[in-house]
Here is the input.
Amino acid sequence: MKNGIFSKLCYLYTFSALSNVVLGQNCQLTDSIMNRNWIFLSNNDLLRTDYIADGGTLTLYCNEHSAAWDLKCTKGTLEQLPYDAVCSERLSLSVVPQYKACSADGANGQLYDMVYSFATGFTVTLYTICYCTSRETVLYSIHKAYGFNLPTGNYQRPQFKLLGNPNRARADSFGSDEIYKTFQTLLGDGQTYVKSNRDYAVQRGHMANSQDFLTYDQMDATFLYMNVVPMFRGCNLRNWKRIENWIHRLPDKHTYATVVTGTHDVLYLQHSQTHRFVPMYLMPDEKNPMPMWMYKVVRYQGECYVFATLNDVSSLPAIQYSNICRITACPAGLTLDEEPGSCVSYCCGYRHFVQQVGDFAKMCSVSSRPSTFIAFL
Here is the structure.
């Protein structure tokens, strides 16, 4: 047993899942290591890569009442843990207000950090949220997407947690029964967007993407009601996912991309009988809106990329959508489906987008990446 960066004892179970595959002299990790009971640390930070360099240390931390285990990598072999090592209760994530105002899309909110706080006073922020309580919605998130290639086939999605600022009514409004009732009330009995209370046509769409985080505990931390907005299933599983996948593959193992994810405007859908367009809110008093747009602004190695997805699965072009995007050619490796059921998405000019959305999305000089505009919305 070895002392970690903390001062007390932590028992862990056997980590036979730690792969001792030699890639050079590194200790390569596999997804089988990623049991969600543990916090994974390296170099006094959360583990960000899927390998431990030769001579480096993987620290496994249980909670503030226990010390950590240090597992050293030596020429491609990682130290083993005792067979009876266990951790019954992992360190909990905290939502910490910055007490700083933020604003977007004509709404005011506050910044909140999603934080691990360790016993020594050492803290790590996983991502940051701008949350608006008056609208009960997240305006935008900011996180870093690190480069790694660790499969997550064994990952089981956790239940969403009501941690931080949202109230119980917001969480309840995402329930399938409530969504069906809301769509029937707002759009009439003839509406076909949500066909029943078991249709699941509207999902909880992540702002900070879970797959951009390496370990299961980090991924779990994104399943908060503070980090989701109502999104049509076609968006969430198709074009929006293609954009997320492209961003996830962008950094190499020694770099990261900074990602701002946000929403803009409220979605309007056509009433089944009156044919008028109705703003879609999942809660009374214009709270928990379905966004018209979801977007991502990505900064990587001095370049900025912008992607916008229209949160609408209909093929009705009757409403004039807000012009936040001047369409540009998409970067290599990203192909977007033009079918409405996939939720039409665009690659956008950075300069125009930042002017429309706000300075919080400004991560590059407006002249650093000139765009060739193809069309206007």
